[in-house]
Amino acid sequence: MIKKIDIYIIKKFLGTFFYAIALLSIIIVIFDISEKVDDFIEREAPISEIIFSYYANFLPFFINLFSPLFTFIAVIFFTSKLARNTEIIAILSNGISFWRFLRPYMISAVFIAFLSFYLTNFLIPKTNVNLRDFEVKYLKSNQLLKDQNIHMQVRPGMFYYVENYNNLTNIGRKFSIENFTDGILDYKLIADKIVWDSLTNRWKIVNYYIRTIDGKNETITKGKEIDTSLSLVPKDFTIDVDDIKTMDYFQLRTFFNKEKLRGAENVKFFEVEKYKRVSFPFATIILTIIGVSLSSRKTRGGVGMHLGLGIAISFAFILFMQISTVFATAGNLSPLIAVWIPNILFFILGLFLLKMAPK
Question: pLDDT digit string (tens) for 328-340?
Fold first, then answer.
């Protein structure tokens, strides 16, 4: 049953958390406006779109990103005040065990963790779609050209090459196709350019030259223009850095399975992202345990000492998470292990600190 002490701690916990998040949101908006105000004025972005299409979709990501840190700060801040006012001593002296005292903290932490899971996997991907549309229209495009001299194998033995590709006009220069059968070249096409026709969803090959090789026989064909279907679309030439951010939990899993079957080079990055979306909310619960354990003891340093030590631990946690994910994406460490190692190690630290906490 929920008692008065539970309601009191939950209100303090969530109230401090949401108050800190609100202050953070105001600071983020102020700094972002100061950075982008020139772009807004130059592109004549309407105020209504800036508010509802940009910042309404911009803030959820940053709120969720900093939620474990501010959960930690909120726990340490108000628990240190409870310890300083000897309220924790009074609670424990009245026969309430430390584990019972911890229950409202866990209820609040689980609530924030579920909220973070929902934001990460369902709400933020939707807001990122609107945010990207606004940035493309009023700020700058997130599409980046691939490097020059693009090589790709569309199926075993068949290779495409484009010297350069313009993703704005959908025109590729110096295009060629080579097909090998049993390691022997039997077909080669060279063209000055290829142009994507969005009406027919086909490619126009301009000023082409075709060599067809059959043993010792060779046929040469030339032409000005030909419409054809190729095993690629314009999106294959560009890197959309925000695609993964617009996928919800189920879309990301489907996308990862598809890329894994294709043998994509960056499949580890997608796998890390898939596991992070599940493991990240657990950081809230772990940091709550550490925060309560650190700040429940009355010390001379008071809130300042607890905050300093707590922030150092939280930043160590974030740094450790970043390092482990780099080992997964750039090394041979399993993405599942890399993502969960920080949670496991700091959970063990939390249990140790719980054991040392005053009871």
Answer: 877 788 899 999 9
Distances (CA, A) of 264 to 257, 259, 271: 10, 5, 12
Question: Is residue 225 a contact partner of residue 204, using CB atoms and an 8 Å limit?
Answer: yes
Range of the domain at 155: 145-237
- Asked if 16 and 131 sit in the same domain, the reply is yes
Same domain, 150 and 205: yes
Is the distance from CB of 227 to CB of 203 less than 8 angstroms? yes
- Helix boundaries (H) for 145-266: 249-262
**Residue 9, Cα to own-chain centre: how many angstroms?**
32
Please tell me the pTM assigned to this model.
0.76
> Position 331: which residue type?
G
DSSP-derived secondary structure letter, 86: T
Q: Quote the number of domains for the chain.
A: 2
Tell me: the pLDDT tens digits for 130-177?
A: 988 898 888 865 454 555 787 777 778 888 899 988 877 889 999 999
Task: Give the amino acid at 263.
Answer: G
* pLDDT per position as a tens digit, 293-316: 888 877 666 677 777 777 788 788
Whether 286 shows a pLDDT value over 90: the answer reads: yes
